[in-house]
Known about the structure:
Blueprint: H1 7-20, H2 29-37, H3 43-55, H4 59-69, H5 72-85, H6 88-97, H7 104-117, H8 120-129, H9 133-145, H10 161-166
Amino acid sequence: MGFIVFPTQLVNLVYTSVRMSAPIPLPDPLKRREILYGPGTAPETLREHGDRYAAAGRMHDAFDFYERIRDEKGIRKAVRWASEIGDAMVLHRAEKVLPGSVSEEDWRRLADSASAKGMWAAALRAAEAVHDEPLARKAAAEILASGQPELVERYAEPASEAKEEEKPAES
């Protein structure tokens, strides 16, 4: 006779096992700096630490390690994560480190995720990357409405000629 597992039981089981598992040991900040920027650190050590930071949910830190050795697999992992949560900075960094590592689909996924979460600056960057003018204009309008015009100057509506005529002539 088999057991019947309901979805909520499965979620509780997974949550309990994750919660009860030991935290992933990470080096203190000074040791992290020594490992990351030390002249004799082996690529395998950097990759291992990148994986440890990724497993701990600290993807920006993980990316630092992957970037140092140009680890394509690790960078792709970071790109997938960033595109799902709406983090445009990681995608830009990945593109600089490994040109071509960020696909149009990654940018579109990021644009969708960021706009759904109201992360309009990230949505704007992603929309510009894939040349999605309607989304770029929508994101720019949201940013302007939030009072940050410096982020979207190129999308601001041009001043009407009537306003220009109202200016007093300079002597």
